[in-house]
Design brief:
Layout (H helix, E strand, L loop, with lengths): L1 E6 L4 E8 L2 E8 L4 H16 L8 E7 L3 H18 L3 E5 H12 L7 E9 L2 E10 L2 E11 L15 E4 L11 H4 L2 E5 L6 H13 L17 H5 L6
Parallel strand pairs: 1-4, 4-5, 6-9, 9-10
Antiparallel strand pairs: 1-2, 2-3, 6-7, 7-8
Helix pairs in contact: 1-2, 3-5
Amino acid sequence: MKLLALDTSSEGCSAALWLDGRTTERFELAPRGHTRLLMPMVRELLAEQGFVPTDLDALAFARGPGSFTGLRIATGVVQGLAWGLSLPVVPVSSLAAVALGAIEEHQLADGDLIAVAFDARMGEVYWATYQCLQGLPVLLGEERVCPPGDVSLPHSEASAAWVGAGQGWAFASDMPEAVVNRIGNRDTSLVPRAAQVARLAEYGYRQGDAVSAELAQPVYIRDEVAWKKLPGRE
């Protein structure tokens, strides 16, 4: 399978090719460079393998949560490619991509647990918890947005190993002590990356998660009421 994955959901910008189990990636931390960098990354990856866009079997993108502007960039690019090439699209959670990054970076074992936190601005964090099963993150409960003081962990054995992942853990001092004390290690360096999006998308494709271009939509989590309350909006 030849799958192209994109991520612009955070300050990182990346594109990756999944080629029958092998992944190649372009990644750069560039908070304001997504529009400038993304398509050159795609062209470089395809040219490196001697491919043209019509060689692809599927597309994938990090659908959020994350930067509103960033999510719209990846969504627009992937929709344009999907329509033009008549390809299916696999939307992948940005939180799950970071959970997979934690599994890979920290060599987590089956049963280990990951609490992912992103900075959602406006005094809130995007939050989700996962369990590692067969090397992949499985969502426990739901993704949500809330103040750091309202985050919680699902019930788990006292001996279960928890890892905190994502830049939202910079707000650990504002989180409940009962949560922070359960986290054995916190990695605030992890951001979504297209390589993890590609791996999750390949699995999702096999599970029937692919959608058509028009259904490839970003997921903001934050409700529209909160968005409308931003300064300057009615």
